[in-house]
């Protein structure tokens, strides 16, 4: 599994799926269309500022709310390479892995990383390095089967590649 490296966009606690992708856009399941509206109700400049590889860092309960798969799809389609949070809503976490978006819980990293920091993540070891500050944090590494799902860009592709 390849590592991720990018600039941090940071949010607080309880970022719910309704602000990740507002319900008014759920008539589309096209990732490119969803990406155009990602985070617009919480951060109107997100889509203008996000760059491929960027990393979202957030507080507790990221992805709470409805179980819509559209939320991690929108984030991934914007080019975000990983989400680091203090905690995730369980269904959001599963949906993220199922669509191939790495998501790591690490409260210490959330505390020690600020918006604009350059961060690198080694998915094999779970090591999160704040390149800007020269600090490291130990997140939970992904089990081998989850790494394979993410490498295949999601569960459906993983299953199809196993046939």
Characterization of this structure:
The chain is α/β, with parallel strands linked by helices. It has helices spanning 17-20, 31-35, 46-49, 70-77, 90-99, 107-112, 144-151, 155-161; strands at 4-10, 55-58, 82-85, 103-105, 118-122, 127-130, 135-138. It is globular and about 45 Å long. α4 (70-77) crosses α5 (90-99) and α7 (144-151) packs across α8 (155-161). The two termini are 21 Å apart.
Q: On the 0-100 scale, what is the average pLDDT?
A: 95
Distance between the termini: 21 Å
Tell me what portion of residues adopts beta-strand conformation: 15-25%
The helix/strand series, from N terminus to C terminus, equals EHHHEHEHEHEEEHH
Short description:
The chain has 163 residues and is α/β, with parallel strands linked by helices.
Show the helix and strand layout.
Elements: E1 4-10, H1 17-20, H2 31-35, H3 46-49, E2 55-58, H4 70-77, E3 82-85, H5 90-99, E4 103-105, H6 107-112, E5 118-122, E6 127-130, E7 135-138, H7 144-151, H8 155-161
Parallel strand pairs: 1-2, 2-3, 3-4
Antiparallel strand pairs: 1-5, 5-6, 6-7
Helix pairs in contact: 4-5, 7-8
């Amino acid at each position: 599994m390849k590592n991720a490296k990018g600039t941090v966009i940071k949010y607080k606690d309880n970022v719910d799926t309704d602000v990740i992708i507002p319900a008014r856009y759920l008539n589309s399941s096209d990732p490119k269309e969803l990406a155009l509206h990602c985070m617009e109700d919480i951060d109107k400049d997100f889509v203008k500022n996000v760059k491929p590889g960027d990393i979202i860092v957030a507080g507790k309960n990221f992805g709470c709310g409805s179980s819509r798969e559209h939320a991690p799809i929108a984030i991934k389609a914007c080019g975000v390479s990983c989400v680091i949070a203090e905690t995730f809503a369980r269904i959001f976490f599963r949906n993220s892995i199922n669509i191939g978006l790495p998501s790591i819980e690490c409260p210490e990293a959330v505390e020690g990383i600020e918006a604009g920091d350059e961060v690198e993540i080694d998915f094999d070891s779970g090591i999160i390095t704040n390149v800007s500050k020269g600090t490291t944090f130990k997140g939970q590494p992904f089990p081998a089967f989850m790494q394979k799902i993410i490498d295949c860009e999601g569960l459906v592709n993983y299953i199809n590649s196993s046939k």
